[in-house]
Design a protein that fits this description.
The chain starts with a strand and ends with a helix. The longest helix has 14 residues, at about 95-105. The strands form four sheets. It has a four-stranded mixed β-sheet, sandwiched between helices. Strands 1-4-5 form a three-stranded antiparallel β-sheet, with no helix packed on it. The radius of gyration is 15 Å and the shape is globular. α2 (about 70-75) packs antiparallel against α6 (about 165-175). It has one domain (about 5-175): Beta Polymerase, domain 2. The chain is of the alpha+beta class and about 180 residues long. Helix content is about 30%, strand content about 30%. A hairpin with a 7-residue loop joins β4 and β5.
Length: about 180
């Protein structure tokens, strides 16, 4: 889990490479945020959606997933408002166990986190954290992981590498599943 204390990311634009191949280019606003103590709300610079830090917690706990939705679009520099965090979870038993443990530590009510055997079956696991609402999209991971993962790239946030969908993929998912 991310320890309490102040974290910052001053990346304005970064090209991430792995083995000489460009994975992603992301324009990320400068961020200075403090991880809250128990019972407090996340503090961040004005305009920074603190709920995005919940995705950083999942990444720090080694949960494999791709951030999608408005948070991904915001991190990619799109002019959207962010109300929650949507993460498409990579399928697989070890990852579901890590997800369960991470959500239990992140959730305001740990008992509300579905058991691992339920995570294998349900479409979406929603928890409420001190950062805000976190939707873990499990069915979407089972169906779309193979096409979503290759277009995603890492964005540094709160001293972790957060896997974020490309803007094109985030917009495509939003168009498919969101009613306007």
């Amino acid at each position: 889990m991310i320890p309490q204390g102040e974290y910052s990311s001053e990346v304005q634009q970064r090209t991430v490479t792995t083995s000489g191949t460009v994975n992603a280019t992301a324009r990320v606003r400068a961020v200075s945020a403090e991880v809250p103590a128990d019972g407090e709300s996340a503090l961040a610079d004005p305009g920074f959606p603190a709920v995005v830090l919940a995705a950083a917690v999942l990444a720090a706990e080694q949960v494999s997933g791709v951030l999608v939705g408005s948070a991904a679009l915001w991190l990619r520099g799109e002019p959207v408002s962010v109300g929650d965090v949507d993460v498409v979870i990579e399928p697989g038993e070890p990852n579901l166990r890590r997800l369960h443990e991470a959500l239990a530590g992140l959730a305001v009510r740990a008992k509300a986190v579905p058991a691992v055997h339920r995570l294998r079956e349900i479409s979406i696991a929603t928890v409420f954290s001190s950062y805000g609402r976190v939707d873990c999209m499990l069915e979407r991971g089972r169906r779309d992981w193979e096409w979503l993962r290759p277009g995603a790239g890492y964005v540094p946030l709160a001293d972790v590498r957060l896997l974020v969908a490309s803007a094109a993929d985030a917009w495509a998912l939003r168009a498919r599943f969101r009613k306007w």
